[in-house]
Specification:
226 residues, alpha/beta, TIM Barrel, eight-stranded parallel sheet
């Protein structure tokens, strides 16, 4: 049964204190840290790349969940691996050779995630792509900006993927908070990305623990019916 993994999005951190923020999230119970790499082309925003990830790496033991919102994801595999990335999640919309890219990521020593935008059907990943990757990310906002409203209409995709791949890590990213965690957990997501919902909370540790508890309970309930 996939266990809960809570991955605070560093996009919502204080950029002037990235090492401090990474330590703070790990201390508060985060399993992963979600690092959004945006190239200003696949999405209109621009964030950080391998040099920044490499600079944060010595300051935390958290698992680095790298979400590559880039037009040429094959270009950055080796750089992110050398920087300390551990999950390399590319967008299915950004490649013509997802199986080759998954192989490249694995050969670089990382796990491979595949992301789909809110309007991309699960048919884009169901089959060999889903079977060979390590995680599927269902975006619950349009990629590129933090602070957007959670898109509940994406939950049927999460549920369909969970039913097809009961042992796969399934991640949701966008608008996750105490108000939206139940829908995501009950649909079957076990990897939860949250930005402002965690970073701006009065008690981030309590939010992270609540997310874990809700996800783990929902997974147990779902596995009774799968």
């Amino acid at each position: 049964m996939p266990v809960a993994k809570i991955s605070p999005s560093m996009l919502s951190s204080d950029f002037s204190q990235l090492a401090v923020e990474a330590k703070r999230m790990y201390k508060n119970g985060a399993d992963w840290l979600h690092l959004d790499v945006m190239d200003g082309h696949f999405v209109p925003n621009l964030t950080w790349g391998a040099p920044i990830i490499s600079a944060i790496r010595p300051h935390t033991e958290a698992y680095f969940d790298c979400h590559m919102m880039v037009s040429n994801p094959a270009q950055w595999v080796d750089d992110i691996a050398k920087a300390g990335g551990q999950m390399y999640t590319f967008h299915i919309e950004a490649t013509q050779d997802p199986l080759g890219l998954i192989k490249q990521i694995h050969e670089a020593g990382m796990k491979a995630g595949v992301a789909i935008k809110p309007n991309t059907p699960i048919d884009a990943v169901v089959g060999e792509v889903a079977e060979k990757c390590d995680m599927i990310l269902v975006m619950t906002v349009e990629p590129g900006f933090g602070g957007q409203k959670f898109m509940a209409q994406c939950m049927p995709k999460v549920e369909a993927l969970r039913n097809k791949y009961p042992n796969k890590d399934i991640e949701v990213d966008g608008g996750l908070s105490l108000e939206t965690i139940d829908a995501s957990a009950e649909a079957g997501a076990n990897v939860i990305v949250a930005g402002t919902g965690i970073f701006k909370a009065e008690d981030p540790a309590a939010v992270i623990q609540t997310f874990k508890d809700k996800v783990n309970k929902a997974q147990k309930d779902k596995f009774k019916t799968i």
